[in-house]
Amino acid sequence: MNGSPPPPTGPAFIKWGQWAATRHDLFPPDMCEELEKLHTQAPAHAFRHTKAAIEAAFGVPLSELFTSIEQAPVASGSIGQIHRAVLSDRGAELAGMAPGTTVAVKVRHPGVGAAILRDFALMILRALACSLPETRTHHRADASTCACCLSRIVDLSREAHNLRRFNYNFRKTRHVFFPVPLYPLVTPDVLVESFEAGEHITHYIQAGDGNPYNHRLSELGSGTMLQMMLVDNLIHSDLHPGNILVRLDPPGGMLGLIYSDLTDRGHLRLPGLQENMVGLFRSFAAMDGRACGDWTLRFSGAGQSCPDPEAFRTAMQMDLAAAGQADSCSFKNGADALAAVLELVRQHQVSLPGHICAVVVTTLVLEGWSNKLDPDHSVL
In terms of pTM, does the model score above 0.85? Predict the structure, then answer.
């Protein structure tokens, strides 16, 4: 780390860097500071690819849809990048907007699907090389599940569909916003959506304790996540700070969170999750380790491959019992406690479905930045 942008790498490794940047409890400050650049400054592709992709997607010259488009991307993520553009008369007519409206144009990186598969092939090889023979099948299955999950979300038309659902789910909420996809300017490679102005939440995180909005921002973040998980059963599974904007409207008045760039890690429909999650949260709040172990084992149903479930329940009971003693508690925050649970999951070879793993990682990311905003607040 020498102050320069992080070196180019594949989308799965960029995603790990975006997660690691939020874990100030695990990594040194200079490392987190460098990795934070991946939230909005992941390696970008050349504008010539953006132009070619838009013209191929919609079958007309770029100038027929937009009177102008900024060649430098506003932001770049692991799956695609966003350009600010202004709708022409024809583009506005197609999108049902007024001519001259500023929009966001998201374009998928070239070859990103193959790059994801390559990244996870490398991860599988690394896991096999570093693991014991009896755990290799478990690690291979975990990495393959995650690769399948990531590979499905490179289709931007899926993102547009789910954006509509998120907008509907939060239609009665005054403080949470999502971009609006502008049909028919939606394809697997290109997505045109409303341009949402705001300031990255990173600004508030870096400002420290003196910001009067920090506690409210933490509450909004955890409240949004809990509604997605326990009410709507549909989760934005990439809640790192680069995907969250803060809007003050007017300045000093109503506070709002804007959730953007849902391409990275996509959206998760979570069949059968709600009952298990409620049970897990209740047992976690009660510091009931055996119940926590039970609910964790249930996530995989009949497909659970843990060789000794009773040993896992006992280990969970011992860990949470020790944590429940104030003078010996080693958990600094909710993320620390959840990380300890994941370590027991790894040690006891408990299998978890890919979508559950994604929810856990999302919760860790949310816990990381919300705890940085307000150390007294925990989503867990």
Answer: no
Average of per-residue pLDDT across 77-106: 95
Residue 190's pLDDT band, with cuts at 50, 70 and 90, is very high
Q: Is the pLDDT of residue 122 over 60?
A: yes
Q: Which of 166, 167, 197, 176 is nearest to 104 (CA)?
A: 197
Range list of H helices, the chain: 11-20, 29-35, 47-58, 62-65, 89-95, 112-130, 136-151, 156-169, 202-207, 214-226, 273-285, 289-298, 309-323, 334-347, 354-373
Is there a cis peptide before residue 73, judged by omega within 30 degrees of 0?
Answer: no
- Active site includes 238? yes
Q: Are 136 and 174 in contact (CB under 8 A)?
A: no
List, for residues 29-74, the tens digit of each pLDDT value: 777 777 777 766 677 899 999 999 999 999 999 999 999 999 999 9
Are the C-beta atoms of residues 82 and 74 closer than 8 Å to each other?
Answer: yes
Q: Count Cβ atoms below 10 Å from residue 110 Cβ, excluding itself.
A: 15
DSSP bridge partners of 102: 86
Collect all residues with Cβ–Cβ distance below 8 Å to 129 and sequence separation of at least 6. none
Whole-angstrom distance, CA of residue 321 vs CA of residue 323: 5
Q: Is 351 helix (H, G, I), strand (E, B) or coil?
A: coil
Q: Is the bond into 250 cis (omega within 30 degrees of 0)?
A: yes
The residue annotated as part of the active site, out of 142, 155, 189, 238, is 238
Minimal CA–CA distance to 367: which of 335, 331, 330, 343? 335
For the chain, the straight-line distance linking the first and the last C-alpha, in angstroms and rounded, comes to: 32
Largest CA distance in the chain: 68
Please give the distance of CA 147 from its chain centroid, rounded to a whole number.
15
For residue 151, what pLDDT band results from cuts at 50, 70 and 90?
low
